[in-house]
Specification:
With 335 residues, the chain is of the alpha/beta class. It is built from 10 helices and 13 strands. It has helices spanning 20-24, 31-38, 54-69, 93-100, 117-130, 156-159, 227-248, 266-275, 287-290, 297-307, and strands at 3-12, 17-19, 42-44, 78-82, 108-111, 136-143, 165-174, 180-188, 196-197, 224-225, 258-261, 316-323, 327-334. Bound molecules: oxa(dethia)-CoA. Oxa(dethia)-CoA is lined by residues 29, 33-34, 37-38, 115, 156-157, 160-161, 227-228, 230-231, 234, 264-265, 268, 292, 323. The site of oxa(dethia)-CoA (UT7) has 20 residues, from helix 2, helix 6 and helix 7.
Length: 335
């Protein structure tokens, strides 16, 4: 059986920086609350007219990843695209990337697993490569949150957290029998699906109600999050799935060279770091600059960690994610 390996990484975030103070002009919030509860200082938002969209940012990140992998668009055998904020209801973002990058008639698979989307995508790529079916798979996570958030005080518990951006990885067949993706561990628990969700527009909420007419109602067109409930589950599942990945490979916490947790909340990352007694240089966080970019969070963080020389050949890299669904998962990589 083949192994797969990440051979190119790229990321893109819009230029427009939105600080906590900027948000406090739109809603009843403040820099101190946001930093204390989440660690976030600023995030990026697409600006009207800057040409960005979920698929456009995905392409910008993918071009960098392909270049670093030394590949052309024609070398890619499959696209796996993860997002919860697609440009349109259907078709998915994968075919849009395919068109924008002038790719062959390769398969374009869309993954809808929210924060876990990119790492679910990595697992899909890994399986197709392991079986020998494909050689090079482009895995993308891209999100345009700012296009669909409630920036009034009603939405503050959600809207201050999320940011826009994209990240991409080229996953390829590895010649080495020891380096690459060692294992992936996927989970979900649909009974908590409503705790972090966007109800509409959907077939249940197809005809838009006028939001301004219902200022006191829970509007199904904006994301809902039971933050404390999500937080409590996140810290448990993160730890579980990291342990599961380590055990599956006969490894221990001491073997970890770099943990890249999904950038949901700096407090969650710090809790996990403390629980596993990892030193600062073994955990990568950049939520301070970008907020929570959901499916784009892991590939943006992975790209930055790699760019900063924090991931070296032979390192044991652990990716861990928890998010809406609930879904959670880990990936264990020998870099
Ligand atoms: O990526 C997917 C996974 N997502 C996560 O893992 C997120 C997990 N949850 C969290 O990160 C945290 O629960 C939040 C950061 C979302 C919220 O922090 P919290 O400590 O759980 O706060 P809370 O929701 O319990 O709210 C505490 C207070 C409330 O006021 P009262 O009822 O105590 O008077 C909120 O109304 O803070 C208020 N509040 C705000 N105040 C200022 C909520 N949002 C804001 C805000 N600015 N933006």
């Amino acid at each position: 059986m083949y192994m797969s390996k990440i051979i190119g990484l790229g990321s893109y975030v819009p230029e427009n920086v939105v600080t906590n103070d900027d948000l406090s002009k739109l809603m009843d919030t403040n820099d101190a609350w946001i930093q204390e509860r989440t660690g976030i200082k600023e995030r990026r938002h697409i600006k009207k007219g800057d040409g960005n969209s979920t698929s456009v940012m995905a392409v910008k990140a993918s071009i960098i990843a392909l270049e670093r992998a030394g590949l052309q668009p024609d070398d890619i055998d499959m696209i796996v695209f993860a997002t919860l904020s697609p440009d349109m209801y259907f078709p998915g973002g994968g075919v849009q990337v395919q068109e924008l990058m002038g790719m062959r008639t390769i398969p374009a698979l869309d993954v809808r697993n929210q924060c876990s989307g990119f790492v679910y995508g990595i697992s899909v790529a890994d399986q197709f490569i392991k079986t020998g079916m494909y050689k090079n798979v482009l895995v993308i996570g891209s999100e345009n949150h700012s296009g669909g958030l409630d920036f009034t005080t009603r939405g503050r518990g959600v809207s201050v957290i999320f940011g826009d951006g994209a990240g991409a990885a080229v996953v390829s067949r590895s010649d080495s029998g020891t380096e690459g993706i060692l294992s992936t561990h996927l989970h979900s628990e649909g009974k908590h699906k409503d705790e972090l969700a966007l109800q509409g527009p959907s077939t249940n909420y197809w005809v838009p109600q006028i939001i301004e007419e219902n200022p006191q109602e829970n509007i199904p067109y904006y994301p809902y999050m039971n933050g404390t409930f999500v937080f409590k589950h996140a810290v448990v599942r993160f730890a579980e799935v990291i342990n599961e990945g380590l055990q599956a490979n006969g490894l221990s916490v001491d073997d970890i060279d770099m943990l890249i947790p999904h950038q949901a909340n700096l407090r969650i990352s710090q809790f996990i770091q403390k629980k596993f007694r990892l030193p600062d240089h073994k955990v990568f966080n950049n939520i301070q600059k970008y907020g929570n970019t959901t499916a784009a969070s892991i590939p943006i963080a992975l790209t930055e960690a790699w760019e900063q020389g924090k991931i070296k050949e032979g390192d044991l890299v652990v990716l861990a994610v928890f998010g809406s669904g609930f879904t959670w998962r880990s990936v264990i990589i020998r870099w």
